[in-house]
TrEMBL record:
Organism: Heterosigma akashiwo (Chromophytic alga)
Keyword Metal-binding: no
Residues making up the signal peptide according to the UniProt record: none
Lineage: Eukaryota, Sar, Stramenopiles, Ochrophyta, Raphidophyceae
Protein known as: Magnesium transporter
InterPro entries: MRS2-like
Membrane-spanning ranges: 253-276, 296-316
UniProt family annotation: Belongs to the CorA metal ion transporter (MIT) (TC 1.A.35) family.
GO molecular function terms listed in the Swiss-Prot or TrEMBL record: magnesium ion transmembrane transporter activity
Mode of membrane association: Multi-pass membrane protein
GO CC, alphabetical: mitochondrial inner membrane
Main location (coarse class): membrane
């Protein structure tokens, strides 16, 4: 669990809480091979902070940063070094107070995670925009559009879960005053007696830098999460539009099928009259051309009338759709 404090064995009330030391398990958590699904968070240890932010995992010490990257991610090192030292160089040139190394290191790890998640959301936004244009067009929807829609929804769900886990990790740290105070490894190294547990009220309140840092990145994660929620809403609307278009297309097919069946029925009436009058039965009208014209006209008019009445009835009842 995330419990960072234990009790030394002693004589009851005189016991003092102490921070857990950095253990082999903490170090193994930095390697994705051993813990591929480690929960994001900042775990404060005695003289160190274990920072786990997705694939960015590091152990922060007062004067150094130990980073474990997955295989093939060496390109991140240059980006990490730039983010770690660029603000420090700017502060020195401007004559401003330098942020402690451990806070700069923690900021670097969280910043890399926020940048990566923001880029994933941006890429998803671009793909969803193209998909919405394809769905909103007047052409027929292809199977490729349906597959893209399903794939984007499958990507958006886990991405939202990851963003939410980052938010919860930072929120947990912000709600723990002891964690925030004990992240100041440089101050602890300079004055260890002041940070003996349980912490005094003065030490507990001395964590403004760490608090402001985590709050800033908590808002960034929140912004990305809100954008993703809007994106998921757009995907839901696009899916509804796709289903509506499919319903309209199905209704048009049913209308066309009904019209063809109606035409076939009318033709059947004409064929019926023709077969009756054309039988080889003796009657007195075989050689009367006027009878032929009358029967032919009656057959056509009757078939057309039945078809028109049937079509009008269906249209009046709203069965046929355009």
């Amino acid at each position: 669990g995330r419990r960072l404090l234990s009790f030394e064995e002693g004589d009851g009330p005189a016991d003092r809480r102490v921070l857990h030391r950095l253990t082999y398990r903490d170090v193994r958590q930095l390697c994705e091979t051993f813990y591929p699904n480690s929960r994001p968070g900042l775990q404060v240890r005695n003289g160190a902070v274990v920072a786990i932010m997705g694939q960015f995992r590091a152990c922060v010490l007062p004067d150094r940063l130990l980073v474990v990257l997955p295989q093939g991610a060496d390109g991140v090192l240059e980006q990490l070094e730039r983010k770690l030292y660029a603000p420090w160089t700017a502060e020195r040139e401007a004559g401003q107070a330098e942020m402690p190394f451990e806070l700069r290191a923690i900021e670097t790890i969280i910043s890399l995670a926020t940048s990566r998640m923001g880029k994933l959301v941006d890429d998803l936004y671009a793909e969803v925009g193209d998909l919405i244009k394809a769905v909103g067009g007047k052409g027929a929807l292809s199977a490729e559009v349906h597959d893209r829609l399903r794939a984007l929804k499958d990507r958006a769900g886990p991405l939202g879960t990851r963003l939410r886990s980052y938010q919860e990790a930072l929120q947990d740290s912000l709600e723990d005053d002891e964690d925030l105070a004990l992240m100041s490894l440089t101050k602890i190294q300079a004055n260890p007696l002041r940070y003996r547990l349980p912490l005094s009220l003065e030490a507990l309140e001395d964590h403004e830098d760490a608090e402001l840092l985590l709050e800033a990145y908590l808002q960034e994660f929140g912004t990305s999460y809100n954008r993703l929620e809007i994106l998921q809403s757009k995907l839901e609307n696009a899916e509804s539009l796709v289903l509506m278009k499919l319903d309209v297309a199905r209704n048009k097919l049913l209308t066309a099928s009904t019209i063809f069946a109606l035409v076939s029925m009318c033709t059947g009436f004409g064929s019926f009259f023709g077969s009756i009058m054309g039988m080889n039965l003796p009657n007195t009208h075989e050689d009367d051309y006027n009878w032929f014209k009358g029967v032919a006209a009656a057959s056509v008019l009757f078939s057309a009338g039945v078809g028109a009445i049937t079509y009008g009835y269906f249209a009046f009842k709203g069965v046929l759709v355009s």
